[in-house]
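Hi Y.,

Following your request, here is the sequence exactly as I used it, all 88 residues.
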Amino acid sequence: MTGAEVLDLARDAVYVLLVMSGPLLGIGLLVGLVIAFFQALTQIQEMTLTFVPKIIAVFLTLLIILPFLGQTMSEFMGRLMERVVSGG
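Below is the corresponding structure, written out as tokens. Let me know if you'd prefer a different format.
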């Protein structure tokens, strides 16, 4: 493999990583902001109030987008295997 092919493969891998992790991180951020706003309004400073809803929201999001994640990873592996079979 040449340097350009390695960089192309790395760019593709980083893109797949961002596409797969983006929705989960976005939901975690959104839920965190809502909870922080709620805590600021009510002045409740309970530590478990921040973690439990975020964990539940990320888990439910993961269950919902699991088919999309599987398809994305399958397409990436297909492209990777085509390069392996073609010899570069």
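The first helix runs from residue 3 to 42.

Thanks again,
Q.
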